Amino acid sequence: MNISILGGTGPEGAGLALRWALAGHDIIIGSRQVERAKAKAAELSPRAKGATIVGMTNREAAEAGQVVVLALPAAGLAATLPDVKDACRGKVVVSTVVPLTFGGPRLFTPPPAGSAAEEAQALLGPEAKVVAAFHHIAAHELASEHPIDCDLLICGDDPAAKATVAELGQSLGLRIFDVGPLTNAGPIEGIAALLATINRRHKIKSSGIKISGL
Ligand SMILES: NC(=O)c1ccc[n+]([C@@H]2O[C@H](COP(=O)([O-])OP(=O)(O)OC[C@H]3O[C@@H](n4cnc5c(N)ncnc54)[C@H](OP(=O)(O)O)[C@@H]3O)[C@@H](O)[C@H]2O)c1
């Protein structure tokens, strides 16, 4: 699959890029500055075992990708998504975004839409097929090449879009749980805030979650 990662210059997007490239997907790193995107693509390419990783602006990346992944801070959604709205029409858009505010009284700070994924859906319009996923897979875990020790929770309103994202998760060796409609993105994002707190308390970088009782 041809996957564009907006904000792919950051640790989460770059980690997903590397893992998906190693799984045989072609990757486009998106950035506000094309030079940054190209530099990150050049840095990752030698580890990609022949898969293609290229860098473009966020807008060009959104136009070129079959699937568009949002790996931006929540604060960047309102500035970024209107410019890629046309390019995302009809496409699967994966939100990895966790609305966190560091240094304030409240770490988990969801927007009025209820979650970053629902904010993304509102900004992109109903023709984008937004799926929330990958919030619990830490950048540190993605950066190496060992098996990822975490389950994947996904939610969204379009069953075919969720099937595509499940396929992307399976290509990383993940066990997938479809947890319902996009209105469940808030709890998914909230769990990521808890994992960030656990990481801080235990001085670790990649706590994750596993579903029991199956
Ligand atoms: N880090 C993790 O372990 C982790 C785990 C799960 C989920 N997430 C979520 O994944 C997303 C990305 O995480 P990250 O740690 O990679 O984030 P990050 O490093 O803070 O940001 C990723 C990229 O977004 C772009 N960016 C930064 N501020 C922006 C703004 N105001 N407007 C538009 N673009 C902006 C930057 O790229 P350019 O300057 O090149 O444009 C940056 O390299 C976040 O929403 C995070 O909550 C992260």
Sequence of secondary-structure elements? EHEHEHEHEHEHEHEH
User: What Rg do the Cα atoms give?
Assistant: 16 Å
Helix content: 25-40%
Rounded mean pLDDT score = 97
Which molecules other than protein and nucleic acid are bound? NADP nicotinamide-adenine-dinucleotide phosphate
Major pleated sheet: 8 strands, mixed
Distance between the termini: 31 Å
Q: Give me the secondary-structure category.
A: alpha/beta
What are the segments in which pLDDT stays under 50 over at least 5 consecutive residues?
Answer: none
Helix segment count?
A: 8
CATH homologous superfamily - what is it?
A: NAD(P)-binding Rossmann-like Domain
Reading side by side through the largest sheet, how are the strands ordered? 3-2-1-4-5-6-7-8
Overall outline: globular
